[in-house]
Prior knowledge:
Elements: H1 2-16, H2 19-22, E1 25-30, H3 38-53, E2 58-63, H4 71-80, E3 85-88, H5 112-120, H6 122-135, E4 137-152, E5 166-168, H7 173-181, E6 185-187, H8 194-199, E7 205-209, H9 210-215, E8 224-240, H10 241-246, H11 249-283, E9 287-289, H12 294-299, H13 301-310, H14 315-320
Parallel strand pairs: 1-2, 1-3, 5-6, 5-7, 8-9
Antiparallel strand pairs: 3-8, 4-7, 4-8
Helix pairs in contact: 3-11, 5-6
Amino acid sequence: MKRGFISLALASLLMALPASAQETRTLRLGMQGTAGDPQFQGVTEAARIIEEKSGGRLKLEIFPNSQLGTFTEMMEQVTLGELDFTLNPFGGMDAWVPRAVVASTAYVVGDFDHLQKIIASDWGQGIVEEMRAEHNWRTVDSWYFGTRHTTANKPIETPADFAGMKLRVPNSAPLLTWAKAMEASPTPVAFAEVYLALQTNQVDGQENPLPIIDAMKFTEVQTHVSLTGHLVQDQLILMSEDTWNALEPADQQIVIEAFKAGGTVNNKLVTKKEASLVSAFRERGITVVEPDKAAFQEAMKPVYADLDKQFSAGTVQSLLDLR
Length: 323
């Protein structure tokens, strides 16, 4: 009988507690990045803070290595509310909001701080709001992913140095446009086959962020790294608007603070890695070239003019002026 009274008392106590004190909600994040990379370390820090600040009511489960599908599939899952978070570049939102392509056009963005100003501008916030209203994607934060540079067996100091080069670029419209504006010959090669293509002179050069150039050992078959810095990329932390609306305001604030802290971890790791690689390449005997970017930007002006015609006169210059 006594045991029965205790059970009834516990049941009554649980019923009296608010639902938030009884339940643990697990949020799910899908990403392309691999376990251990800066983005993964950043979201791991965000997960720690979410659990800590919510007193264990909220948890964040991370699915790296495209476990939940391609980035397009994960974006769709976030739209439908089947996935709570994913990552995708601001400039890469052009498949859904076409004018976002301006932010992934070579030499429009000067550095990561400049990109943050672009996102915070009326132009950038218009894109952010369209993403939320039309696709159910709430932008929580923007993290630094890296700046793309060029490797070759010669220095790249001016646009003329690109002329006629067989240059491997991804099948990305802005990068193909950049290569053509430099009068290079963009050559399609699967990412996994780039090393062999460089080794056998199928292509003369390629472009990627420095950590990828290092990880893929491209400097084993290329003598020069030219810091062309043609494209600065971020990773937006995108959240399902359905998930956001289902959270209490206090928990929404926890999510924002957690991903800001995770972004700080990520940004420091990426920036430190890029700086250390420049020194490391030189120590290995690789020639690191630091060209004047003004000439490259000048060569992009016809592309900028086309973008202004497509979207709105003065668009590109208005973003350049935010530097």
